[in-house]
Amino acid sequence: MTTVRTAYDSPAAHLLLRDAFSDDELRRVRLVPEGTRLDQGAVYVDLRDPTRAEVKARGDMSVGSGELVVPKAEIGYELWNRLTRPPGPGQTGG
């Protein structure tokens, strides 16, 4: 059985998001494990990307070392919209 890792569980993700998200919200943000191949055509965001741009995966893409990748399909739209908004002044940006 694989343990689901969330932004709450990741010190790096927690640091990036702590000023804008509650602990309960961070527990709902699933991170794709490093080395995992992304689903072709699915949409993701890397929390370490300062622009927080949505990325539509190609079949040859996988999660690289140090990336904090979140799948859009597994998160509610309100939380997704907040995640993909670049950090504002005074917020941790990565």
Explained architecture:
It is a single chain. This protein is of the alpha+beta class and 94 residues long. The protein is built from 3 helices and 3 strands. The radius of gyration is 12 Å and the shape is globular.
The number of E-state strands comes to: 3
How would you write the strand order of the largest sheet?
2-1-3
Counting structural domains, the number is: 1
Q: Percent helix among the residues? A: 10-25%
Q: Major beta sheet, specifics?
A: 3 strands, antiparallel
Number of helices: 3
Distance between the termini: 31 Å
SSE arrangement, N to C: HHEEEH
Strand content: 5-15%
User: What do the pLDDT scores average to?
Assistant: 89
Radius of gyration, in angstroms, nearest whole number: 12 Å
Poorly predicted ranges = none
Structural class: alpha+beta
Query: What characteristic shape results from the CA principal axes?
Result: globular
Write the layout of secondary structure elements.
Layout: H1 11-17, H2 23-27, E1 43-46, E2 55-56, E3 69-71, H3 77-83
Antiparallel strand pairs: 1-2, 1-3
Key features of this structure:
94 residues, alpha+beta, three-stranded antiparallel beta sheet, 3 helices, 3 strands, globular
